Amino acid sequence: MFIKAEKSRPHGIAVRHHLAAAIMLVACSAAFCQSYTPPVTEESGSQPAGKYGDMREFPSDGWSGMPAEWFGSDQARRFAHNVLMWQTPSGGWPKVTRLHTRAKSDSAGRSASFDNNSTIPQMRFIGSMYQATGEPQYRNSFIRALDFILAVQMPSGGWPQAYPGRGYQKYVTYNDWAMIHVMELLRDVAAGKYAFVGPEYAAMADAAVQRGVECILKTQIVVNGRLTAWCQQYDPATLLPAKARAFELPSISAAESSGIVLFLMGIADPSPRVKAAVHASAAWFKVSMLTGIRVARQGGDAVVVADPNAQPLWARFYDIATNRPIFVSRDSVPRANLSEISEERRNGYMWYGRWPARVLNRYQDWCAKHGEKPVE
To answer: How far apart are CA 341 and CA 358, in angstroms?
Structure first.
C-alpha cells in the first residue's frame, strides 16, 4: 500500500519534455565526443597523498580533510590532471575508482554516474583545487558538472543513478545515497561554500534542493495509512518503489532511509511535512530494530548468531506489507533468513547494519532544537 504519485497531465507533459531534453543531451554529448580534447594541465603522475595511500579510491568527501595548502601542491595538481581527464563531455564523471590513472581513450563516451562516489566527490575536489589555486580550468570543470546536475534532475525532483542510463539506472535513486550526495553538494552550493559559482547558480541550486525535498516527501512509503521509510529506488513516472538488480526488490531499506532522514534533519527550518517525515521514520526505525543477534564470520561465511549483549541491528531490506526482514539471491525470491540465500549473495552484500543508530542518536537533539515531542 503505497502513496501513488499524483497523476496529472502537467506532470506527464513534464516527463515527456524531460525525456526530449535527455535525448538532446545524449546527442550533443555523442557529437562532442568526436572532438573532445581533455583540459591541458601538468603531466600526470601517481604519488601517495598522506593517509590516502596511492589514491586508488576516491573518498566520498573529495579529500576535504586534507590541509588547505595540499590542494595547491604539485602532488594535488598531478592528481587533478587525471580527474579532469576523466570528466565526461556531459559534465559528470563515470563510475570508476582508479582516478589516479589516466583516462582511457573511450572515457569521453561513458555515462556519468552518481553511484559509488562518482561525480560529487570529484566536484568537491575540483572545487577545492580552484579555491586553492584560482586556476580557471578547475572552475570551468566545476561549473560544467553543476550544469549537468541541474539538467538531469527529473520533473519529480529526483535524480537518476546515471545519465544517460539504462534500466534501473534511470530510476529515482536513493541507493548507496546517490541522490542524497547530490543534494548535499547542492545545499553547499546554495549556502555559499563554492561562492565562485556566483549568486545565480546558488539560487538554482537552492531551488533544485527544494524540488528534491518534495520528491523525498512524496516517496515516503505509506503502509496502512502510516508513513514509514523509503525504498532504494523509484519509478520516475509513478514514483512507486521499483526493483533494481535481481536481489534489490521493492522494499523498505533501513540503510538508504537513514541517509535520507539525516539530510532532512539538516534542514535549518523544516516544514511541518518534513517534521512529520522525520518523526514517522524515527518511529519506523524503532519498531524495525533487531536485538539479540549479530553477524559473524564462520569459515569465511556470514552467519547470524544469537548474542543477548549485541548492539541493535537493522536488516537492509524489509517487506513492505509485513515489515519483516527479507534476503534475496539472484533468483529474485525473497527469503526470511540470511542462511537461505546463496553463498555468493550472502557474502557479497551488506544485509545487516547499524545505519539508523546515527539517526536515533541525533533524534532527541533534533526534537529539542525544533520544539518537537519525540515519538516513543
So the answer is: 29
User: Mind listing the pLDDT tens digit for each residue in 43-59?
Assistant: 333 333 444 334 445 66
In the predicted model, what is the mean pLDDT of the chain?
85
Residue 65: CB atoms within 10 Å: 11
The amino acid sitting at 43 is E
Question: Three cell numbers at 223?
Answer: 503502509
Q: Among the three residues 199, 219, 239, which one is the final residue of a domain in this structure?
A: 219
Host domain of residue 182? 7-219
Beta strands in the chain (DSSP E): 112-113, 162-163, 172-173, 222-223, 226-227, 233-234, 252-253, 293-298, 301-306, 314-315, 317-318, 327-328, 334-335, 352-353
- Domain final residue pick, 188, 203, 219: 219
Residue with cell 546515527: 358
Adjacent-strand bridge partners of 234:
172, 241
Number of domains in the chain: 2
Which residue, among 118, 241, 229, has the nearest Cα to 182 in the 3D structure? 118
State the Cα–Cα distance between residues 291 and 275, nearest whole angstrom: 27
3-state secondary structure of 268: coil
In angstroms, what CA-CA distances link 72 with 130, 145, 173, 194?
9, 21, 35, 17
**Cell numbers of 26, please?**
545524449
pLDDT < 70: residue spans in the chain: 1-61, 96-109
Quick one: 187 and 247 in the same domain?
Answer: no
| Strand, helix or coil for residue 358 | helix
Task: State the pTM of this model.
Answer: 0.85
Bridge-based pairing state of the strands 233-234 and 172-173:
antiparallel
- On the CB side of 206, CA atoms within 13 Å amount to 13
My answer on whether omega of the bond before 121 falls inside 30° of 0, hence cis, is: no
